[in-house]
């Protein structure tokens, strides 16, 4: 047997070759877990104007899936990841799937000005890279998940003009990177947590037209960055 033949027939050679192949084909692909998540998101939405008709074929990061914006290079795991989901003003109804929580590298979740119903999934709290959570102008109900209060990079939460009920979670006092709380025109109830006063970066605190009760905590006057309440 010549050396070449021996190499071609040997198992390790094919193992190395197929590893190389996986590496090369991964180079421009969205992580499979995120492809599954996107399909789950589409499945729970109702899309009468067929804005998402091109979702489902090809790679979502190949600029063909409307509203899906990916990182432009692969991360250390060798895959692309979703950076933004931009689904504003698309006449979407239906619900927001918990699968959204599996887009764990996402910075912007934007579904503003649709007709989405149901509640905000707890799983949104798994998107630790999230900076902008833009859900305003829908028909969301249910209460605010505690888990959102632990998002370490959240810059802005806009849930205004929905029908969200229940209290403002005390956990929101952990959102020390957040500049904007837009929560007006919902059905939030209970007291404004005095713990919110320790938020160092909060600039806008919009809570009008809700069903809040109790005292306005005195401590809110000491918020260092607040401009509009
Ligand atoms: C991306 O789309 C282009 C053409 O639109 C195609 O040639 C290419 O093979 C696609 N790449 C992947 C990874 O799907
Ligand atoms: C890749 O993304 C970065 C950060 O978003 C951006 O600054 C850069 O211009 C992008 N590169 C290309 C080739 O699009
Ligand atoms: C889409 O939504 C806009 C704003 O809500 C509305 O004016 C328009 O009639 C809707 N279009 C369709 C075809 O449902
Ligand atoms: C998120 O991904 C994990 C791992 O693939 C999967 O087990 C889980 O069902 C997914 N969650 C949702 C809500 O789809
Ligand atoms: C995602 O969020 C859900 C609900 O908050 C939680 O039960 C689950 O453990 C989280 N998964 C991960 C991987 O963090
Ligand atoms: C909003 O929620 C409140 C309390 O859950 C409920 O009483 C009310 O009917 C809802 N309003 C709309 C427009 O859905
Ligand atoms: C926010 O809180 C975290 C955890 O307590 C801390 O590590 C971080 O330095 C804080 N950031 C700011 C801007 O206060
Ligand atoms: C907010 O709620 C108030 C009081 O119910 C209402 O007058 C106003 O029109 C609402 N704003 C929007 C933009 O829905
Ligand atoms: C507002 O809260 C009161 C109790 O504090 C309750 O009786 C009422 O039903 C609530 N209204 C709405 C629209 O949620």
From TrEMBL:
Annotated protein name in UniProt: Leucine-rich repeat protein kinase family protein
Signal peptide: 1-27
One family name in Pfam for this protein: LRRNT_2
Record PROSITE patterns: PROKAR_LIPOPROTEIN
InterPro entries: Leu-rich_rpt, LRR_dom_sf, LRR_N_plant-typ
Keyword hit for Transferase: yes
Boundaries of every Leucine-rich repeat-containing N-terminal plant-type domain copy: 31-70
UniProt keywords, alphabetically: Kinase, Leucine-rich repeat, Receptor, Repeat, Signal, Transferase
Catalytic activity: L-seryl-[protein] + ATP = O-phospho-L-seryl-[protein] + ADP + H(+); L-threonyl-[protein] + ATP = O-phospho-L-threonyl-[protein] + ADP + H(+)
Gene3D superfamilies: Ribonuclease Inhibitor
One GO molecular-function entry: protein serine/threonine kinase activity
Keyword Repeat annotated: yes
Residue runs in coiled coils: none
